[in-house]
Amino acid sequence: MERPIVILCVDRDNDFKEKAKIAGPILGREKNLEAAMKLGLADAGDADVNALMAAIKLYDKMKGEGKTVEIATLTGDKRLGYDADKKISNQLEKIIKELNPESAILVSDGAADEEVLPIIKSRIKIDSTEIVIVKQSQALERTYFILLEKLKDPYYAKIIIGIPALLILLFSVSDYLGLGWQPVGIIIGLYLIMRMLRIDESAMNLLKEFKFDAERISWIGYLGGLALLVITGIVAFQSYKEGSYLSGEKHVAYIIRSVLWPLLVAYFFLITGKVIDALSDKKSYKITKYALYTTGVILTIMLLNIGCSWILNISAPYVSFGDFLLAIITAILLAYVSTLVVSWIRTDIIRKMKLEGREAIGQDGSLIGKIVGVDIKNEKLIIQTILEKKFNLPFSAISTIEDKVILKMEG
Predict the structure, then answer these.
(1) Is residue 112 in a domain?
(2) Are residues 216 and 333 in the same domain?
(3) In terms of pTM, does the model score above 0.90?
(4) Rounded mean pLDDT of the chain?
(5) How far is it, in rounded angstroms, from Cα 358 to Cα 372?
(6) Burial of 197 (0-12, 13-18, 19+ CB in 10 A)
(7) Which of 192-196, 274-278, 288-292 has the lowest mean pLDDT?
(8) DSSP string computed for 25-92
(9) Residue 65 and which of 59, 125, 253, 254 are 20 to 30 A apart at CA?
(10) Which of these three, 352, 377, 397, is where a domain ends?
């Protein structure tokens, strides 16, 4: 069988997912034409529509000439950079593995997509590159409309408008309370560290679990949790003033210890609402995830409380370093046992669920394939890709089960 030439269209900032709710890779003429139509209806001015239509036109031309040709669209990430390139690389490897193409033709809408050219060249021979440019009357006009379009995108709006607005707000509040610039510096520093370690993404994924819906029982828990969070802020401010006689790390520990229990109660209000929703929806698999969250929160607060007490030691009962070390070891053991127990419960739930026929989706939103079977004995899912090739994944790869099954893919 003759190896095909694959026409590659690259959407590096993932407009297909963000605007048209279509996950990559998009393979085949019909699916690519459908994707172009959906994106065009969502945003007629998006350059990716023009690039993909040009790719489809090239596909038809080459097909009419009797050549063996395929077409695929690779999608990246709205954050661009490493995240986008990694997803494009993973999708390209899937395409190469399933199609075994002889070479590729890259159809791009401009400079941002051209940045992935070295990634593609390192994996497959490139016959040619076509750049599709949407014409504008003047360079200044083009820049103006590009800026307007970017500001409509929530991701860029958060950077261009959100960050300066937040800084102005923080400095204003800090000055009004007479706290100076140091608290703002601490907040910014902590955020940058969290950003570097990607903790903020995990936190945002957790927050996405808590969506307000007045038709769900969980909204009552959210109101209680929100009220307690406001109270926690007030308690923190009072502790800041009351502990002003303490210096350095003792002052910080005093503030942290004062807000731990209100935070824990607020968390219980929030998570109880989610558990009730899961029970009413008969989605018992979600409860195992909430159980792990709760275990982690309880153990974290326990360690922070003991650690702050050890740092302070201003009143009985006094805490020694040995007590703190014992608490850390105990927390690690409890976390390990809890993970094993929850994992066993999750596996038992999966065995009883009907997963055949559901779509398998990566955590990045990319389509992996469809679940065509479940190997109960070996605890594995049997997945069929869009080109009808099958492979297995262990139950441990499952991240979330809803209408679709979200999977954690390595690499």
Answers:
(1) yes
(2) yes
(3) no
(4) 79
(5) 8
(6) exposed
(7) 192-196
(8) PEESHHHHHHHHHHHHHH-TT-HHHHHHHHHHHHHHHHHHTT--EEEEEEE--TT-HHHHHHHHHHHH
(9) 125
(10) 352
Q: Let me know whether 312 and 347 are in one domain.
A: yes
**Token pair in block for residue 87:** 């997803």
In tens, the pLDDT along 222-267 reads: 788 888 888 988 888 888 888 878 877 788 888 888 899 888 998 8
Residues 267 and 367 in one domain: no
User: Do 258 and 294 fall into the same domain?
Assistant: yes
Identify whether residues 348 and 224 lie together within a single domain: yes
Q: How many domains does the chain have?
A: 3
Residues spanned by the domain of 377: 359-407
Q: Is residue 14 part of a domain?
A: yes
A 10 A CB-CB count for 198 gives 10
217 and 339 together in one domain = yes
Residue 301 predicted with pLDDT over 80: yes
181 vs 208: CA distance, rounded Å: 31
Specify whether 215 is located in the same domain as 260: yes
Q: What's the rounded Cα separation, in Å, for the pair 227 and 263?
A: 11
Q: What is the pLDDT of residues 136-188, one digit of tens each?
A: 444 544 565 566 556 666 666 666 777 778 788 878 877 776 767 777 777 77
**Residue 401 belongs to what H/E stretch?**
strand 398-401
